[in-house]
Amino acid sequence: MKQFKGNIAILGSGNIGISLAKGLVKANYALPGQISLTRRNIANLSPFAEQGFGVSHDNAAVVAAADIVVLAVLPQQLNQLLDQIRPVVDLNKHLFISVASGVSCADIRNKLGAEAQVIRAMPNTAIAIGQSMTCIATDNASSEYMEEVTRMFETVGSVVKINEDLMTSATALCACGIAFFLRAIRAASQGGVEIGFHADEALKMAVQTAKGAADLLLQMQSHPEQEIDKVTSPKGCTIAGLNEMEHNGFSSSLIKGIKLSATKAGALYTKE
Which residues take part in binding NADP(+) (predicted)? Predict the structure, then answer.
């Protein structure tokens, strides 16, 4: 991979920020010395300092030396962070990447300046193993910057460019969605215990079956119903189980949950 030449600041280095930093280094996108990590309690970042990453609690100082600035704090903390860094923002130099749910590019530009180049990114926690589904969007950033951010997040999974008005929907389907699929796997493993397996066996079997189902769709590029048809024989056990789940609202409850999560995701940020 072509190495990035500048410096990257990751402000608010929690799980997402740290996973991104690790992915960028692992893929040889950047060296540890090019990446600075910030958080209020930097004691938790000491292992990264030992690996050569910059570590600081001074957001403004880190931004001043950076080319790309990743805003990885909670939506509720974002306004305070933007106030801290605004005096050192260089609109001709800085690219801002925000992973804060429910915060528009325009919200950030209203704080930093109308000409600020802002791209929103919504990864999920599978970023920690390089398997994130990250959606990116912008209202004003250049195509070159969009390509750069795509390259960054492809080091930690798959990337889809979407319209910005769909970002809260992406939060529900991809970020919250991790929890929904995990809950389905957990329920399947509990069903396995009910029919005679030990808990550890049932979980292993459910996890691998779920992984196989996802990989089938990815590698065969098929539709779920095509694969379902292959395992549902007339009067068989699979269709009986599927229909029982549907009678109890399996699909509709998942759809309703995704819709509610999207509504909540859009209301996490207050502009005050």
Answer: 72-75
